[in-house]
């Protein structure tokens, strides 16, 4: 079922969402200082490509790395994370208005978690629970 929903997701907009994140990641990686944020855009692009059968969770990290992640997430939030989050919330609401769009709206709501606080989050598969990215 995840395969079928991922194919439909790609056809009806998931590909363009992913390409937007890839374009943003490439643009950020052109600057030396933007590389960490560009890598998070690539993480979002992978998650946006095939969201069915995946989820995100906070990674178990040492406390020193948590502080760095919080600082990087605050910078992410100020310079674009809010707009990315609002975009996913908007499309999630629009898609949930129709019965057919509810599964796709739920995927946008799942992407909100990753789009607002990407540093320190990891993507994992739901079936086997292994870390994907």
From TrEMBL:
<dbReference type="InterPro" id="IPR031308">
    <property type="entry name" value="UCP028777"/>
</dbReference>
<keyword id="KW-1133">Transmembrane helix</keyword>
<keyword id="KW-1003">Cell membrane</keyword>
<feature type="transmembrane region" description="Helical">
    <location>
        <begin position="6"/>
        <end position="33"/>
    </location>
</feature>
<feature type="domain" description="Inner membrane component">
    <location>
        <begin position="4"/>
        <end position="54"/>
    </location>
</feature>
<dbReference type="InterPro" id="IPR052937">
    <property type="entry name" value="Inner_membrane_protein"/>
</dbReference>
<feature type="domain" description="Inner membrane component">
    <location>
        <begin position="71"/>
        <end position="121"/>
    </location>
</feature>
<dbReference type="Pfam" id="PF03733">
    <property type="entry name" value="YccF"/>
</dbReference>
<keyword id="KW-0812">Transmembrane</keyword>
<feature type="transmembrane region" description="Helical">
    <location>
        <begin position="89"/>
        <end position="106"/>
    </location>
</feature>
<keyword id="KW-0472">Membrane</keyword>
<keyword id="KW-0997">Cell inner membrane</keyword>
<protein>
    <recommendedName>
        <fullName>Inner membrane protein YccF</fullName>
    </recommendedName>
</protein>
<dbReference type="InterPro" id="IPR005185">
    <property type="entry name" value="YccF"/>
</dbReference>
<feature type="transmembrane region" description="Helical">
    <location>
        <begin position="67"/>
        <end position="83"/>
    </location>
</feature>
């Amino acid at each position: 079922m995840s395969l079928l929903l991922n194919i439909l997701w790609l056809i009806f907009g998931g590909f363009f969402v992913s390409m937007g994140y890839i374009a943003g990641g490439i643009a950020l990686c052109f600057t030396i200082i933007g590389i960490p944020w560009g890598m998070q855009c690539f993480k979002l692009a992978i998650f946006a490509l095939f969201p069915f059968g995946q989820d995100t969770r906070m990674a178990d990290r040492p406390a020193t790395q948590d502080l760095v992640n919080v600082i990087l997430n605050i910078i992410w939030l100020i310079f674009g994370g809010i707009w990315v989050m609002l975009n996913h919330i908007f499309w999630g609401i629009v898609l949930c208005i129709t019965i057919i769009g509810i599964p796709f709206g739920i995927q946008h709501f799942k992407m909100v978690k990753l789009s607002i606080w990407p540093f320190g989050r990891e993507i994992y598969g739901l079936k086997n629970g292994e870390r994907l990215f």
